[in-house]
């Protein structure tokens, strides 16, 4: 079965994933580690259900049905866009947009 495709909206997030650090993104080390784990979860997923079923991820829809957030740590979330391939039930790619500090 084919894995989900993903990409990063910014080169800063891409560099953070590839190297574990980025001077432009001042994030706690724990947040960086959880970010990398969530991206690995996306890499390993065959479909969106694999991500939704991971209780640690705390998958939540935001703004519209094509934007979701995944929990990194208490107070930190990763926002992604779900890019569809013609059919609303078929995800072509997950676009990783940003890491946000929330108010819980």
What does this structure look like?
By secondary structure, the chain is an alpha+beta fold. It is 29% helix and 38% strand. Strands 1-5-4-3-2 form a five-stranded mixed β-sheet. The longest helix has 16 residues. The protein is globular.
**Total domain count:** 1
Distance between the termini: 36 Å
What is the helix content?
Answer: 25-40%
**What is the topology, as strand order, of the major beta sheet?**
1-5-4-3-2
If classified by CATH, what would the architecture be?
Answer: 2-Layer Sandwich
CATH level-four homologous superfamily name: RelE-like
Structural class: alpha+beta
Treating each run of at least 4 consecutive H or I residues as one helix, how many helices?
3
Q: What spatial form do the alpha-carbon principal axes imply?
A: globular
For the report, how would you describe the main beta sheet?
A: 5 strands, mixed
Number of beta strands: 5
Per-chain topology:
Layout: E1 5-8, H1 11-19, H2 29-44, H3 48-52, E2 60-62, E3 67-73, E4 76-85, E5 87-101
Parallel strand pairs: 1-5
Antiparallel strand pairs: 2-3, 3-4, 4-5
Features:
104 residues; alpha+beta; YaeB-like fold; 5-stranded mixed beta sheet; 3 helices; 5 strands; 29% helix; globular
Produce a short descriptive summary:
With 104 residues, the chain is an alpha+beta fold. Helices cover 29% and strands 38% of the residues.
């Amino acid at each position: 079965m084919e894995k989900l495709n993903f990409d990063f909206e910014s080169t800063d997030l891409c560099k953070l994933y590839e190297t574990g650090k980025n001077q432009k993104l001042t994030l706690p080390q724990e947040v960086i580690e959880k970010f990398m784990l969530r991206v690995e979860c996306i890499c390993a997923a065959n479909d969106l259900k694999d991500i939704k079923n991971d209780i640690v991820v705390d998958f939540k829809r935001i703004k519209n049905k094509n934007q979701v957030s995944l929990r990194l740590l208490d107070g930190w979330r990763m926002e992604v866009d779900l890019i569809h391939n013609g059919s609303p039930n078929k995800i072509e790619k997950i676009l990783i947009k940003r890491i946000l500090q929330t108010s819980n």
